[in-house]
Structures are given as structure tokens and as C-alpha cells.
Amino acid sequence: MTPLSNPPSFDPRLVPAEGVDSHLPPVDPIALVPTALRKRFAAPPPWVPELTAEPAWSQRQARHASVLIPIVMRRRPTVLLTERTLHLPTHSGQIAFPGGKAEDFDTDAIATALREAQEEVGLESVFIQVLGQLPHYRTGSGFIITPVVALVETGFTLSPDSNEVADVFEVPLAYLMNPAHHQRHVYELEGRRREWFAMPYQDREKLRFIWGATAGMLRNFYRMLSA
Asked: Is the entire prediction scored with pTM above 0.90?
């Protein structure tokens, strides 16, 4: 399956799901607690990422970027996500992890992810414990993304950048690591068959339509934890 991020004139919410992966087992809740996550990244089992690249729809030169997958250490761990503002040039309005393109002064992919989390949502690195990285993920818009997985202590205060972030919210990690919530979508666009995952989540505010690159990286995270 090749997921799709944000081609022009496309609304993924209007494409019906062709199936749901409820036949796959969810990750055991015991494997989602901080101690178990630390052990998994310290000694990961052999596993293969399911998704690594999307069909390219941008002609721009590939750029490196990093995102932080922040697992908030609540009684039931959650993943902190953002909703991007509508005026951004790429991935506008989408659900995303805090992150962005690498700068020359960043020492590595982790430095990029931590800096972007601070700049985008005000998440200070003092609350963050990096666990490790997932395989690179190439978006259709030309970004080569390094997902950096981290635990986040509670007690932080966020200050989102209103230019980039329309909203910040949390989704239970157990929900995202349960394939019963992993929808498969298929769409024909410009003569090409496109496929992607979506993980819609209804919270108290509204339906959060998680899809494309964000859902693809979460699917890889599921594959690592269930290996």
C-alpha cells in the first residue's frame, strides 16, 4: 500500500473506506507503558516498515525533515498531534506531528525534531525523553522525514504558533495501535491508483481525520511494536 498526503484539489475525507484491518491484533496495552517502550527501542526485534514512500506529486528537490512522535505519559499514554493551519503551502489543514524541515545548524534529526516541537507548540525539551527513530518516510510533497519517538512527561504548558498550528490535541496511544481503527482508502487520481491509511478519531471537540503521512508513520510504529 502507498499512502497519499496532499495532492492538489483532493479531499480524502470524501473517499469511502474500502476496508478496516480489524483482523490484525492490537498491540498489548502492557507494551504501551513507558517501561515497555523504553525496552522495545533499546533492543528492537527484527521488523520491516510497511510504508516508506508516497507517489510524488511535487517536482521540488527532496528536503530532509524530522517529526516528533510525542507519547505523553498519562495514566493511559496518548500521542500529541497538531492540526495545521489552512494557509500553509503544504499539508494545510492536516493532522500532523510537530516537526519541520532540517536546518543547517541542526546537529542531527533529533535536534530538528526537538527544535520544531519547541517552535511549533512550545513543548520544551526538558519534558522530552527521546526513545529512538523509525525508518525514513518520503512524502508526495518531497520531504524525507525522520520520525523521532519520545516520551513526554506531564506538567508541560504548550504555546502553539498560531501561524502554523490551528489546534493541538491528544489521542490515546492504544487507539492508534489498534488496527481495528486503521481504515484503507483507494482513489483514482490522474490515471494513477492511490492508496492510504486513515485513523479517524472522535474526541470531545470534533472528528480528527488522521491520514496520509501521519497515519503511515503510525502504521509503521504499530508494525514495530507488534513485531
From this structure: yes
